[in-house]
Structures are given as C-alpha cells and as structure tokens.
Amino acid sequence: MNIPYFDFIEDPEAALARVPRSQTEISVVCAKGGSSEFVADLLRESGIPARNVAGGMQAYGSFLEPVRVPNSHPEIWQINRRGKGCLSYVVRVGDEAMVVDPSRHIQTYVDFVKNLDAHITRILDTHVHADHVSGGPALASQLNAPYFATAGPGITMGQRVTPLKDGDSLSLGGHVDAMRVLATPGHTPGSMCYLIGGKYLLSGDTLFVNGIGRPDLGGEVEAWARTLFTTLTHRIAKLSNDVTVLPGHYSATSEIGPDGIVSVRLGDLKAKAPELRMSSEQEFVSTMVATAQHPPAAYSDIIRVNLGLAKTEEEQVTEWELGKNECAAARH
C-alpha cells in the first residue's frame, strides 16, 4: 500500500483507518527511513504490528548480498545488489581474490574477502558502466592494486588503468590461466567478458539471462550494433553451450534461480534469445535500430564519472542510481 507520510501528519486517524488490521506484520518504508519510523510508531500505538525498514530505499539500494556459485572452481561469489539489479563478482583461489564490476560501496568487498581469509589482488570492470558509478578506481586506490578496464579505441580514461586485450590470461592463487579475457565490443566499444576456468563467463552487459545488452547508449546505434553482431556471431557463438553465463545485471527477481544465483547456460540462452538466432547482420542492425530508446538522462553523467573525466558528490550519485538499470536491449 502507498499511503504518503503527510497523510499521517495531516489526518492520522483517516490514514490509520486505511491500513488493514490483522496479525500480519507490516513493514514501513520511505526514502531514508526517518518518515517510515514515525509511521511505524503510529501503527504500533494503534495496535497494528509494524516495523520500520531502517535506512529506507537508500539503504536497500546499497545492500550487497554475496551468494556462492555452486561447485564453482575457481571459487566464484556473485554479489547481488538487489535494490539496483546489479551483479558483481569475487573470484578466489587460495588467499588471493579478484573483484569484477564492484559497486561504489567498496568496504563491503574488502570485508567480505577478508572473511574468506584472502586479499584482493586485482580489480576489473567488464566495461564503462552507464547505470551506476563503479567502485573499481576507488577500491584499487585504497588497496594499491591494479585496476583493469578498457573504454575502447580513441576513448580516454582519466584514471590510471591497466589495459586489457583479447586473449590475455590472468593468474590467481598459483593458477596461471584462472581467467581469460575475451574482447566483446558492442554494448560499449571496450566491453570485455571474462572466462573463468573455461566454464563460467562473466559477461558484463554483453549477455543477460534473457537477452543481450543494448548498443545504443553511445548514440551510435547502427555502428555499435554491427560490432555487437560480430561479437555474438564470431566470439560468443564459438563458446561451448555448457558455459554458464553470469551477467552484470538482471531485470526481475524471477531471474534469480532457486540456488540464489542469476545465471543461464549459454546453450539455453542461444535457444531462447531471438537476437542470438539472427544470421543476417542487416536484420540484427535493423532490429536494434527499431528498438533503440533514449537512455535515462543521468547515464551520460555517470559515464563521465566512470571514465574519470568528472567528479561528483555522494548525494548526487545516490540520486542518479535510483531505479533499475536499463542496459538491456528491449523490444517494444
């Protein structure tokens, strides 16, 4: 139910009369947790079981939930930012760990890896994100660890990065080929996927569990769509159907599996995603052009921050990141 806070201020009896009376506990939520605390107190005083969601939607938007990918080796943890639909990853072998696509709430990763009796040796982004501010540069700076990211040809990054190229291998905990880099441009010019142990693909926004990433965020939908088509038909198509895709986002809680993981077998994704079944480049490009949408206004500002070309205040970033991500290609 949506009963505004001010209704309880202006006419508390009328507002309370709208709340159903039962033994079911009611959770009260607002933006930051203050107004909802007042309302929860009113409900309890009137005999209605209620509790406040501390910190409100702002806290929920920052909450990170680690879930281990079952039977994964190297050990992979999917870090679910449920309030945003963002997914990041911790990959661990022994006492070393890599963090992929971290959100800006970097202390969570530091503490989590420490609890695994490991330390973070590398931080990576799959691409320059548009829907949220990356924690990669700040985490790398705090830990004095290398930060791996690629924006694409001719695009300058303002922070210090270690560039990656197709075919690079990264070691971890004595495993020489723990992670292999696949250049997968299209969603962005510098998009990369990371293949873990030959079995798990950290796909960023190139692949989702029900489709692919949109190629229109840079305003060059036709050119980027052609690049994305090449990526899908020449790079992704060559991977084993048994590879498990672990994406950078999800759009609904229904995409979370019974094991708590957002994932899809690549063969199953190829079978159900129409974009992956198109054999004609022109058909694919035409489809992407026809479904192109205007991205949220904040995306261009977030991209500039993630490129290291601009800085902003925490309050502004919180406002930018409100709501779900919109990085998937969507058919009207």
How would you characterize the overall build of this protein?
With 332 residues, this protein is of the alpha/beta class. It has two domains: 5-58, no CATH class; 63-306, 4-Layer Sandwich (Metallo-beta-lactamase, Chain A), CATH 3.60.15. It is 29% helix and 20% strand. It is built from eleven helices and 14 strands. A six-stranded mixed β-sheet has the order 3-4-5-6-7-8. Helix 5 links the parallel strand 6 (96-100) and strand 7. Helix 7 packs across helix 9. The model has no long low-confidence stretch (mean pLDDT 93).
CATH topology of the largest domain: Metallo-beta-lactamase, Chain A
**CATH class (first level) name of the largest domain:** Alpha Beta
Taken together, the total number of domains comes to 2
Distance between the termini: 29 Å
Return the string of H and E elements: HHEHEHEEEEHEHEEEEEHEEHHHH
Alpha-beta classification: alpha/beta
Cα-based radius of gyration, to the nearest Å: 22 Å
Quick recap of the structure?
By secondary structure, the protein is of the alpha/beta class. The chain has helices at residues 5-10, 12-17, 34-45, 56-62, 106-115, 136-143, 221-235, 266-272, 281-290, 298-306, 314-320; strands at residues 26-28, 50-52, 65-68, 75-81, 86-93, 96-100, 119-124, 147-148, 169-172, 175-183, 192-196, 200-204, 244-247, 264-265.
